[in-house]
Amino acid sequence: MICLLMHLFPIVPFRMQMWSLNTYLYGPKDDLKHRLLWREVYSAEEEAQLKALVCEAESRGLTFVYALSPGQDIVFSSSCDLTLLKRKLRQVSDLGCQAFALLFDDIDHSMCQSDTEAFSSFAHAQVTVANEIFHFLGEPPVFLFCPTEYCSSLCTPSVSKSPYLLTVGEDLLPGISVIWTGNKVISRELSPESLAEVQAVLRRPPLIWDNLHANDYDSRRVFLGPFKGRPPGLRAHLRGLLLNPNCEFEANFIPLHTLGSWYKEVKEEGKGEPQPKRPITSSRSTGALASDEIPADPLMSQDLKAGENQVSRSFSHEKISRRGLCSGRVPLSEAQVQLLVGLYYLPHEHGPPAQNLLQDLTWLKANCHCVSVNGNGKKASPQKVEEWRDRAGRFLAACDDVALLHGAVVTSINRAVLYDLYPYIWDLRNTLLVAKAFICWLGCGASSGAELHGVEAEPWVFKGGLSGEVQMLLPVGTSSELFSHPPPLFPTSRLYNIRPFQQKDKRGKGGQDAVISHPDFIGDRCLGASLALCPEYSLVLEDELGVCGCAVGILDVHSFAKRCQASWLPAMRDKYPSRPHGASGHTATKALLYFHEEQDYPDSLLYHFPSQLRLEALPELVDCSVSRSLLTALLTALKANGSQGVFCEVQPTDGLRMEFLTKLGFLEILRGEARPREGVVLGRLL
């Protein structure tokens, strides 16, 4: 099993005799003595912390279940290991714990020689130890056993014919409950028929360990959607249900409230009094809008919508009364909460906002020939071009909505929501910055019209959720190092945009300390040739104050150099003579020689890295993540038109730039001594 509960939540329902107990199962991965060091007892300080947790659970009416995972290296036939196991559980029992679980999930089926001689099978070994521990602890009313085959997909050859499960069902004492996750580790749905089959094999109703909202297997995903896909009719086939929640506390409001609604419906069905489905509302949710005040949505149920209203209150108004209004901080609006939930819905399905984003991006990429330079030799109809631009406008507006949501989360009055959810919305904001720039670039007709290949697969297959799927639709989507980085320590709500270069961006400006006084000199030397000969690979980064960075690229340096020698450099040599009037000194002469020297790169470099780029940003740009997005957007454009590799030049003294590029997969190729100009050449394949 890939997930364990890590926070104290009122998990409902869990049932041994009655569906009325709230339960917390303790099995955190950061407690080394839970799994890796299971033989070691807790220190006095650790004992005190664990006892406090047990007492806190009891004071809140929760059944505290202590789970231990000895399966990785236990020798089942070893009396020493059995003694250590009993000692560990006795220590926890003495702290007041009265409910226990033995977990044998995610381990190898093989046994050592002594176990092979002592037991007829792997299941026999596990069951023997579990039964003895159950007796040793005095047959507690709550004792859970997690089998190695804990879902249908792990059973060999099937649930009904699995020798492992048949042994567990036959030999495990009836007072021990068996944990089950459904058809999969993360089951989209649970059906009464599949659970009835499991119940028949185990000779007892299974206890569901529900991983629907567990997110500790993917650092880029969080699940804010409702508890669904579990009909109330499951009750007859279950011993109980434990929900494995998101690692982030604030992310579990809707999951837990909709679980409560499901539980209420289960109870009403059990009484034989069917009731109409009601939204989650109570006296505690005063101030939340009624569900019928929210526009109808075929995907989001009334329970979810009401839950979102409660979330909006929890994310905002509830916090105001406790903390007071902070300067510049406001609650998230209802629409923003709905957008947030729709972007981070459930493992197997996206909410409407995420679905629309993916559908539009997929369609725009597949039909980019309508607005490309040559359109594959076919001119698209005006209607098709208009359709492309309309859908592009909708996609760009949706990206802007996510950017605004990012800013709203940063300035939200609920700081707990900010720190729990910021890494996810920040990641998506940056990925959509690249996607938006890519669509803008396509809309300028910069694409060659060639088919843009992505990785085709079912949604939710790739890691990263919505961010990951958007990433995989981009030409550089397989380069994970361009997208996966930790968020900044200090969140900022500043809005950024990446767009193609426009002529209005070209403004000459001579600095007071410039060696050459001509206002165009710096621009001509650094970016002039690229902007004049291949402006389609020039991107601009801007914020609310204006342009704050740019990235320029050259698709084919070899052909570019020929064009440069033929037209650009002669014009620059006329504009900037090597010995102009009014310029004196060695530094000025050296600067002007830039336009009078041959500039070439060895064929061995251009064979693997035919493209070149240059990245510039203002010093006050402190969020390096947007610089990464700017560079990634340029690499996306170069890759889309066939580039297989790119290089750039960096001064040896520019350590920050070297570190930045190295983290994005660039490696040192050539040093200055190998060519006339000084500098380090870094390159990466695309």
TrEMBL record:
* One of the Pfam families matching this protein, by short name: NAGidase
- Could you tell me where the Basic and acidic residues compositional bias lies? 267-276
Assigned EC number: 3.2.1.169
PROSITE patterns, alphabetically? GH84 (PS52009)
Residue ranges of every copy of the GH84 domain listed in the record: 1-267
Assigned keywords, A-Z: Glycosidase, Hydrolase, Signal
* UniProt keyword ATP-binding, yes or no: no
User: What EC class does the entry list?
Assistant: hydrolase
SUPFAM superfamilies, per the entry: (Trans)glycosidases (SSF51445)
Top-level taxon of the source organism: Eukaryota
Signal sequence, renumbered to the chain: 1-16
Q: Which reaction does it catalyse?
A: 3-O-(N-acetyl-beta-D-glucosaminyl)-L-seryl-[protein] + H2O = N-acetyl-D-glucosamine + L-seryl-[protein]; 3-O-(N-acetyl-beta-D-glucosaminyl)-L-threonyl-[protein] + H2O = L-threonyl-[protein] + N-acetyl-D-glucosamine
Q: Which GO terms describe its molecular function?
A: [protein]-3-O-(N-acetyl-D-glucosaminyl)-L-serine/L-threonine O-N-acetyl-alpha-D-glucosaminase activity; beta-N-acetylglucosaminidase activity
Where is the segment annotated Disordered? Answer: 267-295
User: Tell me, which GO biological process terms does this entry list?
Assistant: glycoprotein metabolic process
Q: Is Hydrolase included in the keywords of this UniProt record?
A: yes
Name of the protein this chain belongs to? protein O-GlcNAcase
